[in-house]
């Protein structure tokens, strides 16, 4: 009865569309280019970057991974960004987060050409999303991928209550903006929220992005709710799990995403989609 939202399959479908778009660009001699900058040697980051690089290659996107030492200066890092800002073969630039201590992530993100900001983290693009401005602009890939997952359910969102647990720049805040732009009534919860369970039990759509293993249990969820688990946590056995106690919540939810195989694969597929978006938008402006 409960729909298990298959992020792997949805990512496959989206990647197939992206591959087709890359093929039509190729007929006109255009190859979308993605630059991924990774600073230091965080092992988790290295895995994500490898996955992104591999997927880009499969789709025909030209992906460049720039590995930089943790000891790099802020000025030298900004210079690398400048290089890609000026490179006409590069349409999307991503600086893997987190950066090592001592580097100013906000300043680096603000230095990216907003037209090449494939993560949607530049303040100009954040502002465009927040203001729901018309026209093309990149947005954070994880919440955009979640909107695609919600679309796939063909349910009516307008006027329904969305509760977003977490308020990070990468997930919670842009997620809340996108749900608000979809005409939902949106609540955002965080560590200071009083009686979290009373709030989450009112959610028709519940998005959880806290990094707290199994924060949300069966009794925290309204029967029939759509539950989206963004968490990528390790359980006591070191196994990848989410912020939602899947085995309990699946009994009550109307639809739920698994971890792994839910939001994660859609994040990567959306990054590829948005790289091609940026390439096409650049072409429309005549800057390719
Ligand atoms: N699948 C994917 O593509 C992605 C997965 N992730 C995963 O999603 C999770 C969240 O990531 P991210 O948003 O970057 O995390 P952050 O650590 O940046 O933010 C966590 C947020 O959760 C809130 N929070 C923490 N504990 C509680 C609690 N007990 N009750 C209510 N709110 C709480 C914090 O509140 P406050 O602001 O008050 O501190 C904060 O806003 C992680 O597991 C991460 O690995 C992240 C990005 C992409
Ligand atoms: N500038 C920047 N942009 C990001 O988009 C960004 C980032 N920094 N820093 C880290 C987070 C995390 N993130 C994920 C991407 C893919 C999976 C993913 O593919 N997950 C799979 C499998 C993962 C596994 O098995 O380890 C799944 O959930 O099924 C997860 C998480 C992007 N992030
Ligand atoms: Mg974070």
UniProtKB/TrEMBL annotation:
GO process annotations (BP): L-histidine biosynthetic process; methionine biosynthetic process; purine nucleotide biosynthetic process; tetrahydrofolate interconversion
Enzyme Commission number(s) from the entry: 1.5.1.5, 3.5.4.9
Pathway: One-carbon metabolism; tetrahydrofolate interconversion
Domain (Tetrahydrofolate dehydrogenase/cyclohydrolase catalytic) ranges: 5-119
GO cellular component terms listed in the entry, alphabetical order: cytosol
Gene3D superfamilies (UniProt xref): Leucine Dehydrogenase, chain A, domain 1, NAD(P)-binding Rossmann-like Domain
Pfam families: THF_DHG_CYH, THF_DHG_CYH_C
Molecular functions per Gene Ontology: methenyltetrahydrofolate cyclohydrolase activity; methylenetetrahydrofolate dehydrogenase (NADP+) activity
Database matches in InterPro entries: Aminoacid_DH-like_N_sf, NAD(P)-bd_dom_sf, THF_DH/CycHdrlase, THF_DH/CycHdrlase_cat_dom, THF_DH/CycHdrlase_CS, THF_DH/CycHdrlase_NAD-bd_dom
SUPFAM superfamilies per UniProt: Aminoacid dehydrogenase-like, N-terminal domain, NAD(P)-binding Rossmann-fold domains
Annotated catalysed reactions: (6R)-5,10-methylene-5,6,7,8-tetrahydrofolate + NADP(+) = (6R)-5,10-methenyltetrahydrofolate + NADPH; (6R)-5,10-methenyltetrahydrofolate + H2O = (6R)-10-formyltetrahydrofolate + H(+)
Keywords: Amino-acid biosynthesis, Histidine biosynthesis, Hydrolase, Methionine biosynthesis, Multifunctional enzyme, NADP, One-carbon metabolism, Oxidoreductase, Purine biosynthesis
Keyword Amino-acid biosynthesis applies: yes
Residue ranges constituting the Tetrahydrofolate dehydrogenase/cyclohydrolase NAD(P)-binding domain according to the UniProt record: 140-280
UniProt binding sites for NADP(+): 166-168
Function as written in the Swiss-Prot or TrEMBL entry: Catalyzes the oxidation of 5,10-methylenetetrahydrofolate to 5,10-methenyltetrahydrofolate and then the hydrolysis of 5,10-methenyltetrahydrofolate to 10-formyltetrahydrofolate.
Subunit structure: Homodimer.
Family: Belongs to the tetrahydrofolate dehydrogenase/cyclohydrolase family.
Stored HAMAP family: THF_DHG_CYH
Protein name per UniProt: Bifunctional protein FolD
Gene source species: Levilactobacillus suantsaiihabitans
